[in-house]
Amino acid sequence: MPMQAAHLDLLLGWLDEAYVGPAWHGPSLRAAIRGVNADTAAWRPARGRHNIWEITLHSAYWKSAVRRRLTGRRERDFPAKGRNWFRRPDDPGLAHEAAWRRDVALLAEEHERLVRVVSRLRPSALGRRSRGSRQTPLEMIRGIAAHDLYHAGQIRLLRALSRS
Prior knowledge:
The chain has helices spanning 3-19, 29-33, 38-42, 52-71, 97-119, 137-163. The chain is mainly α. The protein has one domain: Four Helix Bundle (Hemerythrin (Met), subunit A) (Up-down Bundle), CATH 1.20.120.
């Protein structure tokens, strides 16, 4: 197997390890969210701080952004308005279970869409920057896997704090 094809397999493994698991370090992003209800997802450690729900949607957004960058698509197809961080729940006084579940499902969908795009990449393209990009596809894919792990840790911490 040529080295570049091995890199692609490694990247696909990292994506799934970080989101689906199992991860050697602890919970994957999906495992960190498992069992969280809307009230816990909406809990904030302090005013102006992000909650689990916002981190979940932020993670979905960046999976979508990386996917679009890898495909070269300019049109934005992420369902939430805005970018990067999205205030959740929409009504701060109400944490609706169905809305939380939709955003968790969106994260899963964006992960699957990203994996499909990565699996179709030509291994020879992994090290080449596309026009206008600062990162190679390899760097973006490695980065989004690290992003999932970073936020999985934050979510685990927020879950523990919400119970104290």
